[in-house]
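A quick aside before the break. I want you to see a complete sequence-to-structure record at least once, exactly as it would be stored in a machine-readable document. Don't worry about memorizing anything.
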Amino acid sequence: MVSVLLIEPDTARAALLDAALVECPSGPCRVQQVATLSSGCAYLATSVVDVVLFNRALSGGAGDALDRAKRAAPGALVLPLDETRFEDDDRLHAIFCYVAERTSTESILRIAEEALFEDKERGQVTLDSIGDAILVTDMQGHVTYLNRAAETMTGWAGNEASGQPCPRFSTSLMASPARSP
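That is the input. The structure line, written in tokens, reads:
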């Protein structure tokens, strides 16, 4: 769901826009309406929104209002509204479809990143608990990971070994006593 902050002093106009956004083809929007730019900036200090719509006539002109709104909501799409009939404006619907799709994609990406992080943590715990030495390298042969057993065997801490070429460890590994099976 797209969250919208509507900065519009005219309550009748705000109600028309709210109704148009609820029936948006991209799905319903959650709209918070405030009457002044100052109250909009105060709202943005405590809330995150996807879109800020504001009356172009606010605060001495659109440039000043646009700058203030962008500073208050750096991640949001900030759009000035003029006096046209936005209820019938296909551009507004297209914008909200884009924002809804972007919001949905970002949500899916965030969930995937969290799942990937959890999988990586489980793998890390598994590798750390294995008693045999494990040394992992990238495609160029530089160390990317040592488990505790490998740290003990080589004498290198994992963070010190990271990025080092694997051949630097051959003397440490060769000097270690071989274990019988």
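Two observations worth writing down. The longest helix spans residues 90-129. Helices lie at 11-22, 37-46, 62-72, 90-129, 148-154, 158-161, 170-175. We'll return to this after the break.
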